[in-house]
Each structure stands twice: as structure tokens, then as C-alpha cells.
Give the backbone structure.
Amino acid sequence: MANKFDPMDLKQILTLHLDGYSNRKIGSVLGISRNTVNTYMQLFASSDYSFQDL
């Protein structure tokens, strides 16, 4: 069964990104793959939201 998207995951990823963590380090901290972090970051970048909107 595939993992389900959790909005809190995205918020954690973005928070760590803003703290200066690399995508590899974010994946390590959260226990997810670097590719998952990359995917979430790309999805967020294509949205109409900014980091300050969080």
C-alpha cells in the first residue's frame, strides 16, 4: 500500500528547507527519500503559495 500525502509532511519539509537543510538532509531527518522531498518541493514551487504564506 502506498503512503498517503500528509499536509504536515509538506509543512515540515518547507520548514526544514527554510532552516537551510538540504533535500538529502530533510529526507534523512523525516525518514523519507530525497526524491520524495524533491517532488514535494517541485509541487510547492508550482503552486501559487509562497513560503511566507505558511
Notes: The chain has three helices and no strands. The two ends are 30 Å apart (CA to CA). The CA atoms of residues 5 and 40 lie 10 Å apart. The first helix runs from residue 7 to 18.
